[in-house]
Specification:
With about 450 residues, this protein is mostly helical. Helices cover about 70% and strands about 0% of the residues. The protein has 26 helices and no strands. Helix 23 packs parallel to helix 25 and helix 24 runs antiparallel to helix 25.
Length: about 450
């Protein structure tokens, strides 16, 4: 058929281009495009032109997609929607909104969903409200769940929680995406009790079954409110869902694993980890981090060895958990070996968190001068987290004279954390250098560094 251009029509071109997108065959799609140009189809058939816009957008070639759109003599709503979708998909949200403002035909529901997605990403709530108003005035997307969900997501992302709730309660058709978006919106706004209440309503109503995104969101809420009982209930619910027990849902079980680790319930975390049918790198990393935080440093190092045996290559986050385990366990020699392997063997460039972990490891072991020498030899300027780790080491082991020198570095370091300043002030106060402590406090007020008020929930059995 490829050798006989006369047999081609817009169906053969559109389906072939779609197949190329699905199979990630960019070169073959370009060949089909060239064939369409030679046969004359690509310059006159709007179906093929729209397919080309989508094809190039799927591969991130925005310039080619835009060129194909500009070549359409009379773009229809599919043409406009395709180019807007392509721009949003590839991170050009502002450009997508500019294209939408110039649209010269009546947008359909899919157009509005795409534009609302761009508004959500840009937090452009006022423009989103205008689109909402347009849809009501022109009955576009009326009683369309996809449009309603896009609006719900916009208001949730922009923290317009009351507006989102009013819209949610007025929707005629509510699916799992609607429920999940509402629960997530409450969670982002830190209305955790409302998020939990909404989840219970979803379960009790039975109209929609929670999906993986719903459960991940609810598990994060359990951690935020410190509700181990709700977390255990969600765990029980997950075990009753046979569809979640098959592969493809590792992120849900990782969220459950992370919840138990953050609650400090390592017995349950280990139980969940052992039961995972499809462990991924994140699963191993969560467990190593949990063991490090709970003082099981040796077990964390052993787990790292098992992870390598099972064929998983560590990333930067894995090494951060590993270095933390060495720091808390006092394994300085092992920690330095892992840090070297991270750079030399796995070619992972250390970030400030890795450097801070090494400093903390030295500090906990009382190796103050080694810690200071490490900071001086860093290939990049230390930030607040590194200096704070160094300060904390001297606070534990006591050396106020060196703190004077470090204090000057902290004061002149861009992005120094509130913790660094507070630690410095506390060190001065601990050795009765009240005048110096007050100077640091005055400096905090002067530069406008403020402590964020804390908020916590405690579940009482």
């Amino acid at each position: 058929m490829y050798q006989k251009p006369t047999t081609h029509d817009h169906f053969s071109y559109t389906y072939s281009l779609k197949a190329c997108s699905m199979l990630h065959e960019f070169r073959k799609g370009c060949e089909i495009h060239a064939c369409g140009v030679k046969s004359g189809h690509a310059a006159s058939d709007i179906f093929i032109q729209n397919s080309l816009i989508r094809f190039y957008s799927d591969f991130g070639d925005v310039l080619s997609a835009r060129r194909e759109f500009d070549n359409v003599s009379s773009p229809n709503v599919v043409s406009w929607t395709s180019i807007i979708q392509g721009l949003v998909k590839n991170g050009y949200e502002e450009e997508a909104l500019k294209v939408f403002r110039s649209i010269d035909c009546r947008p359909n529901s899919m157009t509005l969903v795409t534009v609302l997605s761009a508004c959500s990403l840009l937090r452009a709530v006022n423009l989103g409200k205008s689109v909402h108003g347009y849809s009501i005035r022109n009955s576009v997307g009326e009683d369309n769940t996809c449009v309603d969900n896009a609006l719900l997501n916009l208001y949730s992302e922009c923290m317009c929680t009351v507006t989102a709730r009013n819209l949610f309660e007025s929707m005629r058709s509510i699916d799992v995406i609607s429920w999940t978006t509402m629960i997530s919106g409450y969670a982002k706004a830190m209305f955790y009790e409302d998020a939990i209440r909404c989840f219970h309503m979803m379960i009790e109503g039975g109209e929609a079954e929670p999906n993986d995104a719903t459960l991940v969101t609810v598990l994060s809420v359990c951690v935020a409110v410190g509700s181990s009982s709700l977390g255990k209930w969600v765990h029980s619910y997950m075990e009753g869902r046979h569809d979640l027990l098959v592969g493809g849902f590792s992120h849900v079980w990782n969220a459950l694993l992370d919840m138990y680790v953050k609650f400090g319930n390592m017995d349950m975390a280990i139980k969940v980890f052992k039961s995972l049918r499809c462990k991924d790198l994140f699963s191993w990393t969560i467990m190593m981090n949990g063991m490090a935080m709970s003082g099981q440093g040796k077990q964390a190092l052993q787990l790292f060895s098992f992870m390598l045996i099972n064929g998983f290559l560590p990333d930067g986050v894995t090494f951060l958990s590993l270095l933390s385990a060495c720091s808390h366990g006092g394994f300085v020699k092992e920690g330095l070996s892992f840090f070297k392997a991270m750079k030399d063997v796995y070619k992972i460039k250390p970030d400030m968190q890795h450097y801070a972990c090494i400093v903390d490891m030295y500090g906990r072991a009382g190796l103050l001068y080694e810690a200071e020498a490490f900071v001086k030899e860093m290939p990049v300027a230390p930030n607040g987290s590194v200096l704070s780790a160094l300060l904390n080491a001297y606070r534990i082991h006591g050396d106020s004279e060196i703190c004077d020198r470090l204090g000057q570095i902290i004061i002149t370091t861009t992005g120094a954390s509130i913790g660094s300043f507070r630690t410095l002030a506390n060190i001065y106060a601990s050795v009765n250098r009240w005048s110096d402590a007050k100077n640091v406090e005055d400096m905090i007020k002067c530069i406008g560094v403020k402590k964020i008020p804390g908020c916590s929930w405690v579940e009482v059995d």
